[in-house]
Amino acid sequence: MNPLYTVAEVRAIERAAALSLPPGALMQRAGQAGANAALDLLPFSTKLAKVLVLAGPGDNGGDAMEVAAHLSYTGAQVALVHYAPADANATSPERQAAQQRTRNSEVPLLEMDDARIAATDWNLVVDGLFGIGLKRPVDGRLAALVETINRLPGNVLALDVPSGLDADTGCVVGPDGVAIRATHTLTFIGNKPGLHTCDGRDYAGLVDVARLDIDASHFPAARLHLNDVKFFSRHLRARRHNSHKGSYGNVAVIGGARGMSGAPILSARTALNSGAGRVYALFVEDALAADPGQPELMCRAAQDFDLSQATLVIGPGLGASSVARALLADAIASENNLLADADALNLLASAPGLQSALAKRPASAILTPHPLEAARLLDVSIAQIQADRLSAARELAARLNAIVILKGSGTIITAPNGNAVINTTGNPALATAGTGDVLAGLCGALLAQGWPQWEAALAAVWLHGMAADVLVTEGCGPIGLTAGELIPAIRTALNRMVDHHAR
């Protein structure tokens, strides 16, 4: 289900498949698949369509030239920019054959700085400059071409990966590099993680996969997937009529240092609206008598609460006091389900002893860091986290024996054994204060209702993003959406999913 493959894995699949195929078969299949995808983006009458194809020096350029030839034969008005520097390595016979087909189709050539590129009203640009093998930044005249393409108003179809984007990490290659901003990406053989995390979602657009009819036997078992409802739908159960509040577990949200009472309130409200039977909002300082907006919450002083009574969500607004540190130590020592967020993660980062205790815990905890919190835990920079989000999440999960939810564009969920999932829901509306507190409360509620940790993490991240997607579709954002608005949307999404999957 929705497997993702690294560049190394895709290359191994390609080599194995090519051994049993005629020379050039995979490039020809890629060209046909690219042409079909391009035709889907063109007007009904292709003879009126204007298509610009960018072809680079490698096999990705060969794929692009195959596309150019196919589109030319349909009658489309195709022009080609062919980048082939003098110092490029010798091209493959397959690419040379594709280039000859393009010449035979009499597709006109344009120089990279031709004024017609910016002046023409192209219906489609097909990007085949660089594929998955790019190691150095796109710069110089090529960077100027990329920036010109990114200013054009029409659709851009990237072949395999948008040129300039790292297919493994989702980063634009190089600190000053540029990349094609595609509206659509047709990726070949297998889906790649970089299309779905970090910069990937901004540059790849809508992603489709062309497996090029490669036999399934050539594909290894994937340890990385895109998140999917199928991974957790068996736990979406309708409620029995003969049940009560004790049937759905208790959640205790521990936080609320002075001036930060809003964070645990957001988290606790979410837990209650996501189905937990009882929810306690526990405050390190100045405990509220009640939450006027959600009087069903039980507000207490954290030091007076028996932590063995509930699933524990610790960190929202927790602060860094000695009391907060002692509460975190007690939470780690408990045998209950534990989710650590926000200030709990910052306290962990400064306390190797607590990290050791967490790693030795019989039951894994769930950690929900954003990139800065992950950087503190691994003692690296934010840039290093973002440069390879997947590796960072896996290292943190293994080191702390925890399920890690590394938040961000394309949130990554990892298990201690290295299995990982990249989430596909969510949008920039979530880039606002408090949304992490909401996610923590949602995940805590699922744990309290008996969900296994892995499935609870996957479902919480998926639902959290889906709620934001629905709200934006309804006109509530992305600009100005607030974390509290997510809570009723999450409740609605969860109930609809239960109605659909628990019949």
Describe the structure.
- The longest helix is centred in the C-terminal third of the chain and has 21 residues, at 453-473.
- The protein folds into two domains: 7-222, YjeF N-terminal domain (Rossmann fold); 229-501, 3-Layer(aba) Sandwich (UDP-N-acetylmuramoyl-L-alanine:D-glutamate ligase).
- With 503 residues, it is α/β, with parallel strands linked by helices.
- Helix content is 39%, strand content 15%.
- The chain has 17 helices and 17 strands.
- The protein has helices at 7-18, 25-40, 59-73, 93-104, 115-119, 140-151, 200-204, 262-273, 322-333, 343-349, 352-359, 371-378, 382-387, 389-400, 435-448, 453-473, 483-501; strands spanning 50-55, 77-82, 109-110, 124-128, 155-159, 184-188, 206-210, 224-226, 250-255, 278-283, 298-301, 311-314, 338-340, 365-367, 402-406, 412-414, 420-422.
- A ten-stranded mixed beta sheet has the order 8-17-16-15-14-13-12-9-10-11, sandwiched between helices.
